[in-house]
Amino acid sequence: MKIDLHCHSTASDGLYSPEILMDLARIRAIDVLALTDHDTLAGVDEAQNYAQGLQLIPGIELSTQYQGESIHVLGYFSPGNHHQPELDAALEEFRSRRDARALEIAARLREFYDLDIDVASLLVSPGASVGRPHLAGLIRAKYGYDFPTIFQKYLGNHTKAYVPSSNLAYEDGLALLNRAGATVILAHPGDYKTPVEELLRSDLHGLECYYPKHSPNETSQFLKICQDQNLLVTAGSDDHGQEKGYHGSLGETPFLLSQLEPFLAKMGITVK
Ligand code: AMP
Ligand code: ZN
Ligand code: FE
Ligand code: FE
Prior knowledge:
Elements: E1 3-4, H1 18-27, E2 32-38, H2 42-48, E3 55-66, E4 69-76, H3 85-113, H4 132-143, H5 147-155, H6 170-179, E5 183-186, H7 196-199, E6 206-210, H8 216-229, E7 232-235, H9 257-266
Helix pairs in contact: 1-2, 4-5
Bound molecules: adenosine monophosphate, zinc ion and fe (iii) ion (2 copies).
The site of adenosine monophosphate (AMP) has 13 residues, from helix 4 and helix 5.
């Protein structure tokens, strides 16, 4: 059974439209796919129209803040239940914050690095959330640098141009997703300075143990925590359709199926 529980479309910073992504998933013989765009569910609505033959789990990757660090939280919904008034209103606010933030980053790029990009020229789909990869695309088009260089020098969290995408506190993000009825999973726990133990909460339901950037040691450490604390285990590639090397590729994150079964059962998916 092929499963990928983390990927992005043009509704955030992925390269492929939800329609193309669904085709790609079928070509890769994926059985269960969750679309998890940054701070928006807009792609899920479109993807649903093209999901024939796939079990599509509506999902989201919410950006939150914990002690100055950006922590990503995945929320998964049962099909048809991803729109909740409180969450939709919050997402609209986060999305407009991202628009303003893109302008702020562009101003800083000009001030600190003498880079001049025209954010207004960004062609993003309606309802999409703008992220740093969009800005990186503009810098690449104009100055010819590659993505790793651009993030290293100009857009990374450690640069002078960095502005957080959200000011949503980690705990508030967990609570928001819980109130919307989501199953809540900590995305790529190996990515953070904060140790995963410090991020465990009663309303966090599991960890994305299988992730392309996790070392075998990290994966076993996260799996052990899930086993000891009775948490759900998930697996995701974080495919963005581009810049392979930084993200994984759709359907290509290996995992042990038996470990994903409790999550899949909670989503109402039976294992073939
Ligand atoms: P944002 O949510 O706007 O802060 O953008 C975060 C996104 O930027 C991540 O989900 C990645 O897609 C991308 N990103 C972050 N760091 C890098 C990097 N070093 N190289 C390529 N993409 C990156
Ligand atoms: Zn991204
Ligand atoms: Fe992430
Ligand atoms: Fe992601």
